[in-house]
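INFO  loader      accepted 1 record
INFO  loader      residues=83
INFO  predictor   begin
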Amino acid sequence: MPYDAQLRATAGWEITSVVDSSGEEHIEQARSTFKGRLPSGSVDVTVRHDRATERGTLTTRFTLPDADWLDLPGTGTYDLATD
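INFO  predictor   done
INFO  writer      dumping tokens
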């Protein structure tokens, strides 16, 4: 069953790739937010930062199309940091 994904990276970070479980890329250029419908399965999200920003967060929300009040597993806030 497809699900809706909302992703947001804090200032200084960009989402560079959103790839679903079939290998399809869902963004064409880097951005701070993503909103879209993905097929069932996992999703790989790649982010990058500008050199001035070492820490940030990625906020995710995954819901079913007809039940946006119900958060799916993986919804949450994730710390981002440079190595």
